[in-house]
Amino acid sequence: MVDEEEELFLVAGTASGKTLAVAIPLFYKLLQGRIRKVLLMYPTVALLEDQRTVMDKLAGMTGLEVGQLQGGMPRSQLIAALNKPVILATPDEIYWFFRKNVKYSSLLIYGLALVDEFVLDEAHLYNGLMLQNLSHLKRRIQLLAGKLRKSPQWHVLTATPTEELRSLTNGIEVRGRSKCGDVRVTFLEPATRYDERRDKLVSAVESALEDGSYKVLLVFNSADLAHRVFEGIKGRSSPDIPTDLKLRFGRVRWGRFKAWSEEEGVEPETVSGIERWLKGENSFHLIDLKDGAQARISTETLALKVSRILETQVWTVRRLAYSAERERNRGMIEAVESGLAGKSRIARLVWDSVRPSIKDEANLESLFGCLKAWVGDVQESLERILVEDSLAACAPAFYEISAALQEAGMNQELAKRVTDYLRYSIELSEDAAHDQQVSSSELAERQLVLAWLEWLIKDESRRKDLIGRVHKALEEGELEVETRQIASWGDSGIPVVIYTGKMSKSERKGLLAAFDDLSRAVLISTPAVEVGVDFAADALITEECDGNGFLQRFGRVGRRFGVKASVVALVKDGKTYVDLYNRCRSRAENIRDVKDGGEISMMREEFSRLLADPKDGLFPAKLYAGGSDLLDATHYMVNAQIGEIGGWLNEAMFGDGKAKELAEKLQEADLSFAYGLRGTMPGVSLRGGAGGGDPFYVLRKIYNDRLVASSSPYDMARAEMWYMELLWKRSLWEIVVDAKATLEASRAIFWLQDDRWHLRAGYGIAADYARLFQPSLKNNLRALEPSIKSDLAGVLERLKPYASQQPKAHSILRVGSALPLFFLPHSRFILGQGDVHLLRQDQDGISEPVEDRMGNPLVLEDQVWMILYGHGRDEAERLLAAVSALGLDELYYDWKTLDVQGDRMIGPVLLDRAAGACFDVYRRLVEHAG
Fold first, then answer.
1. What is the mean pLDDT of the chain?
2. Which of 309, 475, 753, 854 is 20 to 30 Å apart from 799, CA to CA?
């Protein structure tokens, strides 16, 4: 069908050859000149890397070139990749360019419009908002292609079809058949405790090895559990792996390799060349320079960093002043100074610098004026002082920076604190790392991956000589390397490989191919291996997961004919286990499958039918958002970036005007927007490039003094900790949203009225609105309801003279046009945007803000959130369940903030994991309340 110019909707299980069934006719059409360009999109990097090998083989047979889109590539590389006849990408990588800037967006959009045929592989992984994002992307491409008089085709490949996926293509549905042989699935009784689950699964692996399985796959739902089992099972003996694999995956600390090289007599030029490369490749900061080394620091970078520090600290003071002004329970100056006790040390020092110019009876306007004037004077003075392009400063104290800051108007202690902060946040450029002396102890701890030697040493004779020496040293045991991701299963010598999403991209590269190449091995992994990666196992041991996950994991076994295969699944709860047991007992042909001791089993084909039946409910599917007005408005703004053609796109994509109306309100309020195919909640990154991930999990284990602010839009912080250290740390705190501070830091609130979105912008606007529900104001507002509804402008005008004396009048005046929301049935669903502040609470109930090592608050910047104001947990859960919004995959539910903050009137907090989820839930609740 692909060869006959028709779109295809191909439904087939794993190991059915879906990708090749489409790729081969596409390559043939390219060779014939019937089409010029195809793009194959894969949902994960692991699948893309695996399929890149297949596509390269096809390219070698046909002489066609393959290009790959990767986030972070410069424009020249992007152009080169887009000019290839075959392009590989993940939608996430494409979205990276849309986030970048207008030049990248325009270039990419034009390149995509030239594509003749698209292939969307493993499409069942796109759900909810991710699928809506993808649908908008497709619509944008189709419209632009139409301008070029093209009509690209879309081929959708999936194991589990849905109506939403069918809407992506007009393709004829074709059903294929998996090449996997049928296997028996055995179900283990539930285990609730971590050690019980671990022991059951580990025992199942050992039983499979004893039964003669050569390739065993052990899949956990949690990366942390997978790594704990891997670390716990590692034996003292070295894994029985060939020296070639040690060369591919071995790594050694630079200090050890350098010492071995010198003992071996390797040319000093070769050693120094590797060391220079390590300095440039690794990320170093001022703090990493050796004592006495002099750094050349960009004065532009220095000025920007200092301005950012001062602005964040001034906001801390402003927020405290706002609170004091609203509550009127004591003097503003007293409230600010009391609030700064225990807060950021830099904020206190900033206040001490500004305080002499502030009168004791100051109001908000005069206090803010003093703060603004002081910051402006410091910034202006610093720009006059830093006249050169760079500033020379000497490690470790960098007194030159402190001196410049003091000359600009900071006192000695504040200048020292800011300088200390800059030591950790100013990154050395690649040239600077080469030219300047990085601390030898810091450099010695950095890892050298032996595989890098193959392309790192350009001179062929030197490269062959060094690799030959390393190979010999590995064989004879003279050079001990760590194959961090490959160990021995106990003392058996059988290699065990770890592969999870917590590992950096460079750490994961090639591991699945290594598992496939080994004659016998165990692979411990997570859902990272579910999606179409082409390797085969004889036995699958897995935790219970959702139905789609089971189907994907099943595709890893039974792919080799003539090899006995088996599946063992650990059931999560007793009810499911009893249900499975009864199903087996109810069928006469399956009575033999109910074994003594409660162990039950059925054939995979039968179990797959149960999973594929949406009415069965055996393993409930994940819940996803149905759509989002904010997501539509975001795509409208992305289009608007591209000028005139963007305006035409918006007319065609969002003709009803709703997206435009909300987008224009967001732009008028100068609100930033999150944009990404998958998650948009910032995470916490770890050393070595590993993704620590969810801040509400990672921050439970990390002290503030090991956190540094991150310059990446994808991270709220960078932790000075390796993943393996994090793994074994116990949780010390509960991490919750500081709902009070988040309300104070709000930049806007949104509400629906008569099916139209309204927006009120202003710092702290959500806090003002929330105060209207306090008993002292609530009854007064109810009394004013007729006047407010008939003459809102008149009521606000009459209140102006009293705003400076009456707290309630001040709050009402501040909220202004948002007042009608107060009288709606959904008034206590507060949807807002701004920085989300976090608290950590220890086991003694003591709470403190999440801050970096210098005492500066670390926040989830510019996030959309929703507070179910005044709702207890039980009430909120019932309400969300009633609108099918309890447990949405794209939302984070913070129930614990009620316990930590001790104020039941605040209510639970919901945060977007994917941009637009809160808007979707808010709409559902509004319609329910109405």
1. 81
2. 753
